[in-house]
Amino acid sequence: MSCPGPVSVCVACLNVTRVNVTLKHTTSTCTLVSVSKPSIVLLRTNMNSTKMQKDLLVVEDVDGDKFQSSFYQKREPVILRGLDIGQCSTKWTVDYLTEAGGDNSVKIHVAETPQMDFLHKNFIYRTLPFSDFVRRAAEEKHNDFFISETESYYLRALGDDPRKDIADIEHQFPKLAEDVTLPDFFPREKFFSSVFRIASKRTQLWTHYDVMDNFLIQVIGRKRVVLFSPSEADKLYLNGDKSEVLDIDDPDLEKYPLFGHCERYEGTLEPGDVLFIPALWFHNVISLEFGVAINVFWKHLDDKLYDNKDTYGNRDPLPAMRAFQILDRSLKTLEELPEEYREFYAKRLILRIQSKMLNQEKQPP
Ligand SMILES: O=C(O)CCC(=O)C(=O)O
Ligand SMILES: [Fe+2]
User: Fold this and answer.
1) Residues 6+ apart with CB under 8 A from 342
2) Is the model's pLDDT at 333 over the cut of 70?
3) pLDDT tens-digit profile of 59-113?
4) Per-residue pLDDT averaged across 21-39, rounded?
5) How many contiguous H segments (helices) and E segments (strands) does the chain have?
6) Is 285 in the pocket of ligand 1 (CB under 6 A)?
7) How far is Cα 321 from Cα 179, in angstroms, rounded to an integer?
8) How far apart are CA 297 and CA 359, in angstroms?
9) Does the N-terminal peptide bond of residue 38 adopt cis geometry, omega within 30 degrees of 0?
10) Residue ID of nearest Cα to ligand 1 atom 7
11) Which of 230, 241, 237 minimizes the C-alpha distance to 280?
């Protein structure tokens, strides 16, 4: 690939423009090594992007104001590099985590293959002391195991009583929480949870969305992240909040033809990176190495729109849940009609939703 020359990004609109900055050319992308202005340093451009695949933006030296104006209001994902995430970035090793993690037991996913599949449940839940779990997740071959010596582990930490309590590292892992500085880019009263995410090398988490805004703070290990915009929902073969398309790199296009038309955003988190995942953006992650991350969910909408029994941060907002219930009732009502009438009126319902609710440009052909 020939280098198209120096580029920079407009801080206001994020359009990539050509300006006089220095770039170091690498085989796949150009890395910006110096620039005087603008003050956001763009480390990776969209040069590698195709129509269907875009590189996630990677930006450095972003403060709260810049995050708000350049990224948060646009509700687009971005990788924030170089933020102060606290001493965890230097202090945390497997030995330290096992010592400082406390005596908690954690409920973990254990699977024979690293590609975890929630819809067909190819994993089992097991409970281990946190320290044993961390050791096992960090090793590639296990002496002690549940299924096989190469089994994969994944922890999504929960509250003390997951039916009532919300995951918060300050409560469940107080000593480790002292080492973590959460980005101060949202109002504290909007904070919902902070969740440990620890994974064996190669573990892949199914494509799903969450209903809250999210900073995924990668502390140890590199992670590949793929995101899909909420506007791609009609091509993702959803089952609730999850996509049926498990193998996003080699999808079965006979079964999932529309997935082939999906636009994806892809990037690699390095240790210390923070990925902003706006609510409703689908995400799929692969731990390229043993991975330790913490994610912070916070409320973007008014408090009263969220289900206050939701301890995970993934129940749809209350009005959306009510709308689903009403739709189920109206579908049930159509059953009073003979089949050809039922289909006709089901189509009319779809047309009404399309004309009233969907942006014309985004309507399916
Ligand atoms: O990084 C991970 O393990 C999963 C991240 C995720 O799903 C989240 O932060 O919502
Ligand atoms: Fe998630």
Assistant:
1) 334, 335
2) yes
3) 998 999 999 999 999 999 999 999 999 999 999 999 999 999 877 899 999 999 9
4) 37
5) 8, 21
6) yes
7) 38
8) 28
9) yes
10) 283
11) 230
* Closest alpha carbon to 101 in 295, 353, 294, 331: 294
Pocket test for ligand 1, best of 155, 288, 295, 315 (most atoms within 8 A of CB): 295
Please report the ipTM that was assigned to this predicted complex: 0.99
Cα separation, 51 vs 192, in Å, equals: 35
Select from 9, 45, 46, 56 the least CA-distant residue to 264.
56
In angstroms, the CA 318 to CA 323 distance is: 9
Q: What is the largest CA-CA distance in the chain?
A: 70
Give the model's confidence band at 34: pLDDT under 50 very low, under 70 low, under 90 confident, else very high: very low
Q: Pick from 285, 294, 315 the residue to mutate for probing ligand 1's pocket: most ligand atoms within 8 Å of its CB.
A: 285
Report percent pLDDT > 90 for the chain. 75
Closest ligand to C-alpha of residue 288 is 1
Please tell me the pTM assigned to this model: 0.85
User: 167 is written with which tokens?
Assistant: 């995951």
